[in-house]
Amino acid sequence: MRRFHFTSPGPLAALLLLTAALSGCAGYPPEYLWRVLTWGDADMGDVDRFPARTLQASPRPQHLPQALDDDAVQRAFEAWRPGQRLDALLNDTGTQAFLVLHRGQVVYERYFHGASRDTVVTSFSVAKSFLAVLVGLAIEDRRIGSLHDPITQYLPELAGRDARFERITVHHLLRMASGIRYHEVSFFHGDNARTYYHPDLRALALQHTRIDGEPGRHFLYNNYHPLLLGLILERATGERITDYLQRRLWTPMGMAYGGSWSLDSKASGFEKLESGINARAIDFAKLGLLVLNDGRRDGEVVVPSVWMQAMLEPTANAPDDYNAGMPWMSHHPDVYYADLWWGLRRNDGLHEVAARGNHGQLVYVSRRHQVVVVRNGLRYGIGSMEWMRLAEAVAAGLGGR
């Protein structure tokens, strides 16, 4: 869930910048340089810029019943922001879709800025949370042995570069605690840009990754982790990742519409594991329902309960360790990171959890209050954590009815 801070230049400026930059960017593919220069900051238009692999609608679609109650959601919101209108805030913050489900029913569904239920939006880092579920399914399918397998069991070429990779496990990648270097330098040389725009993400993950520290010691949000997990999934299952998602999750969950997963390039054909699942907001809500129902759909097991619970549990690392990787977390001591999911700690262990993405994409789940909140938007509009706090307030308000 990283942000870029680079504004795309005009065509002539891009050409001049490209010419000037080549001397300092030797070794980068021209396609990568062009994307960074002309596409600029990641945005919702990326759903149309990257090539993609198609996901088909489920033959057994799950149609969510409606029991719309805008007033109840407004009252819950107003308890958090007295005197304000939720619809006004959503419009002012560039929100495209905002959905609230309570006890499995849609109680609020609003669209803004030309969007509708048929609008396909991109997930950004919400895709990481889908990936975590796929890893659990691969373990269930006995394609991945265990969370404690060294990643070199599946990616032996890493050990050929540096034997220390043998000490990194699958679980270290899921928990963002591998010790792999990640620098948020601006422009071409930053890992944010590389892991987002590089046209061969397999090669990038296998050849560019370097180790900075001891695995398991420190939290550092790192977009090489989902790329490496994707490589492990691809090799362990023998399937393209989109195909595995389709067969093991998209179809069983009952996604009512088609979607896609963005690729690094047509030539490479590797899914953008750190981002890039493209779907309608109403289908993203079904990821939240899956969590709410402990991996079941209509009583049928889609994902084993044991994985759903383990995936969402807080890490054993102390909060101060989080602050080193993401300093803003010091202002939110209840926030934690699990297996590619975010959470808000609760003393009784029934934690609030969320899949979060750039520009405020959100799938928030309150198991206590039986609420799912989905937000998709063009920009954050408010602080990145404020969307999680807004959803927390709405869930608490509805749960108290």
Automatic annotation (TrEMBL):
Residue ranges annotated for the Beta-lactamase-related domain, each copy included? 97-374
Pfam families from the UniProt entry: Beta-lactamase (PF00144)
Q: By its UniProt entry, which InterPro entries does this protein fall under? A: Beta-lactam-related, Beta-lactam/transpept-like, Diverse_Enzym_Activities
Q: Which PANTHER family does the record match to this protein? A: BETA-LACTAMASE-RELATED (PTHR43283), BETA-LACTAMASE-RELATED DOMAIN-CONTAINING PROTEIN (PTHR43283:SF7)
Give the protein's recorded name: Beta-lactamase-related domain-containing protein
Organism, by scientific name, is Caldimonas caldifontis
